[in-house]
Amino acid sequence: MASDKELSDFLKSVDKRAFKRALYAVRDEDAALDIVQDTMIRLSEKYADRPAAELPLLFQRILSNATMDWFRRQKVRNAVVRNFSDFESAGSDADFDILETLEALGGSLASESAADSVSRAQILLAIEAEVARLPGRQREAFLLRYWEELDVAETAAAMGCSEGSVKTHCSRAVHALSTALKTKGISL
Amino acid sequence: MNQNDLRPTGGLPPMAALDALQARFALRVTARLTERAAELGPDLTERLRFAREQALERARAVRSAEAAATVGVSRGGAAILGQAGSGWWLKLASVLPVLALAAGLFMIQRLQENAQISSAAEVDAALLADDLPPRAYSDAGFVEFLKTPGE
User: Among A37, A165, B71, B107, who pairs with B51 as Cys (CB 3.0-4.6 Å)?
Assistant: First the structure.
């Protein structure tokens, strides 16, 4: 059973990322805060007796469900329409090369100076905007897999889909982000 | 960062190399997202802290309710001490006295029926075994004779 301190530490470690995840999905700060609070309370009420090691996966699953509940309540048709872009073919950009973007990111990191600090905030904003612009399932898979650092099986469990779907969503999300950053000529 | 680090190594199969590249790119993006998340305003940070505290309060309330339910007192007055997961056994234990009572009542009824049958059988046997035929008791004159004090 997770102790009070373990639960508190866990919630503290995850709350900001959870807020951002919800915000990317619902695009409304108040709604995102409500979703995060609802998620925390559901976790505390129903799963406080679980071991601390189980909390991350449970939390992510509850957060996903709470976000879905919000969409159901709001009946936002646009969210559903946006998800249809998940069915786009993977090979739409024949000249896509992830290495180019990686090299741009790596090189710009090395050459960053104090003079870049003003534009850096704008670049972070732009990256965040691109993440928010991803189709819902792709963004969820991408953030769970790489931000929350769940493995493929855990991500699949949290999203309620197969491991193959997680890999596909992640790959498409990386592809889309890389293309978008390259198009914007973003250097950090 | 050395750009040679970003090149897939020749030893890895193409799919594994692509996965590694994707992961590297994704981790760089999420590092920027973490930077942004750390820059949340004081208002949002405070509201998140409040949400955390509310959740912890609920967890404490649930735990104390569970602890109170762990020590249950049965109808017979006997204290039953158990673990949180023994709710099933507690229910079973509370049903047992009811079952015992029902079985007892059933047994008492059967015993009474048997006693009635055996007493009726004794009367019948006595009547049949007697020298006097049972029909004599329905004769009014014989009943009158029985009531008359002996001479």
Answer: A37
Helix or strand or coil: residue A135?
coil
Q: What is the CA A38 to chain-centroid distance, rounded? A: 18
Residue in chain B closest to A5 (alpha carbons) equals B56
Looking at residue A138, its pLDDT comes to: 92
Which of A126-140, B26-40, B45-59, B83-97 comes out lowest in average pLDDT?
A: B83-97
Residues A42-64: b if buried by 16+ CB within 10 A, e if exposed: bbbeebbeeeeeebbbbbbbbbb
Dihedral sign (CA A171, A78, B40, A187):
positive
Residue A124, pLDDT score: 87
Per the CB < 8 Å rule, is A44 touching B56? yes
**Paired tokens of B14:** 């193409």
A87 pLDDT above the threshold of 60: no
Instruction: Give the closest-approach CA distance of B12 to chain A in angstroms.
Output: 16
Give the Cα separation of A138 and B48 in Å (integer): 26
pLDDT for B138 = 85
| Residue B72: φ, ψ to 5° | -110, 150
Residue type, A131: V
User: Residue B119 has which token pair?
Assistant: 């007493």
Beta bridge partners of B81: B71
Chain A 98-117, residues with CB within 8 Å of chain B CB atoms: 98-99, 101-103, 105-107, 109-110
